[in-house]
Design a protein that fits this description.
single chain, mainly alpha, Four Helix Bundle (Hemerythrin (Met), subunit A)
Length: 204
């Protein structure tokens, strides 16, 4: 009974936070609601026994992605009113895609409940929790059966990061760049001048 109460509380807060992320006019408030939604989703994962996914959600998404979004929104002062001007034009297409995804999720849930043998046809069945922990089972599957797709995904992310840096890097004509070889090879006489000043005389 207590688990059901907490489940409904976390689910309700998660749904309301997700709705406020989309409907909030202030982008800073939208990011804060997004962080709240991530925390509630992590709580639901903890209740399901997936503690590794919950901690990953908090560390990666809350600690990095959402905070990065918050800093970008606060520092760049983006005009979101201009960005949202064409939202109504694409709203029917987005609504149609969202309805299709919702129907697919409902169909997947219903078919898995109707067919009891659906869990037995999973490629990598979940081992017993008394034999192996959740984190150990996830690492064993990820780094044995799916090690090559995991490495390929890392290379794809690396290429995407290099491409993003290359596309956003713009040469500035007035920027002063450091020439390390020229600084290291300079001599003392080129940068330092010793002047002997007589007593009572000044330097012009």
């Amino acid at each position: 009974m207590i688990e059901a109460i907490f489940f409904y509380i976390f689910s309700a807060v998660l749904i309301l936070s997700a709705a406020m992320v989309v409907s909030a006019r202030n982008p800073v408030h939208a990011v804060l609601f997004l962080i709240l939604a991530f925390f509630n989703a992590a709580s639901l994962f903890v209740m399901l026994g997936a503690e590794f996914i919950a901690m990953t959600l908090v560390i990666v998404y809350v600690g990095a992605v959402a905070v990065l979004f918050l800093f970008v929104v606060m520092m760049l002062d983006i005009n979101f009113a201009e960005l949202r001007r064409g939202m109504m034009k694409h709203l029917p297409v987005g609504g149609f895609v969202g309805v299709v995804l919702l129907i697919e999720l409902i169909w997947l849930y219903v078919t898995s409940q109707i067919d009891p043998s659906a869990a037995s046809r999973v490629a990598s069945p979940v081992p017993d929790a008394n034999v192996i922990t959740n984190t150990h089972a996830l690492g064993q599957v990820l780094y044995t059966q799916y090690v090559y797709p995991f490495q390929i995904s890392g290379l794809i992310l690396l290429v995407a990061m290099i491409g993003a840096i290359t596309l956003t890097l713009r040469p500035l004509p007035r920027a002063r760049r450091q020439n390390v070889s020229k600084q290291v090879s300079r001599e003392v006489k080129d940068v330092l001048k010793v002047i002997k000043v007589e007593t009572g005389a000044g330097v012009e």
